[in-house]
Amino acid sequence: MYLVSIVNSTSTTVLYPSAKTSWVGGFLANSNYALVVQAANDAFNPIRYGASSPVLSFTTGNPSMNGPATSLRVVASTGGLLSMAWSDPVDTGGVPIQRYRVKWIDGRGIVQTGETLTPNYIIYQLWSNTSYTVQVQCNNGVPNALTQGWGPYSPAQSFQTSDASLPSAPVQLLPSPVRSGGSVTMTWTPPDDTGGINISRYFVLMKLWNETNFYLSPNQFQVEPTRYTVSGLYAQTAYNFRVLAQNTMGHVLLPGLF
Predict the structure, then answer these.
(1) What pTM did the predictor assign?
(2) What is the pLDDT of residues 131-146, one digit of tens each?
(3) Does 65 fall in a domain?
(4) Best label site of 8, 46, 130, 132, fewest CB within 10 Å?
(5) End residue of a domain, out of 42, 60, 78
(6) 191 cis-preceded (ω within 30 degrees of 0)
């Protein structure tokens, strides 16, 4: 067993490799480092390390292309989403990673991508009990005519959504509904997480602004799949509305009012 100490003006990195060859990353570009190695054998318990090797000094080069992301994993899942996380490359190219690109492929070979500034990403609009191939690409902003700062993708890994689940809340699309003296027309977008199955329908709940409980709007009709009109209202009267999305697993309320 070995103890490797790598020091520069701002930090110290300590490694405990078991082999005589080890890949070390996390260095800054154009920076000076000093490295020493100590060895240990099985003669002592707890482990004691011998004398340090002569100091090896080295300087890293200019910023370069980063390597692939590491430790890609699922941190949460439902029937309709995979919440992914990963770690930065061992070799960042000597500069911080600026953004990430996530690529996923379903069983039909359909490829989709999304970008994020943080090492985590939620993949929505998936089908339940379905395997998806996921890869992550990192960008450190180092100019490159061919890749524009993007490094290689991480190795392809397969992840599966869970059984069908409840949908998440619908998303309000219009900040202000279309109103008349006796009706309100509301438009929203489908839930980000459908639960992995199709949304079967929506329900509009309502109440007077000073009432406590919501009830199913008695005079609602569908204009479009995500556009409903509620009629039979009193003029110049304040109402609160909520929308429920329903799949075969049930429904979920839209948080907040509109």
Answers:
(1) 0.82
(2) 999 999 999 999 887 8
(3) no
(4) 46
(5) 60
(6) no
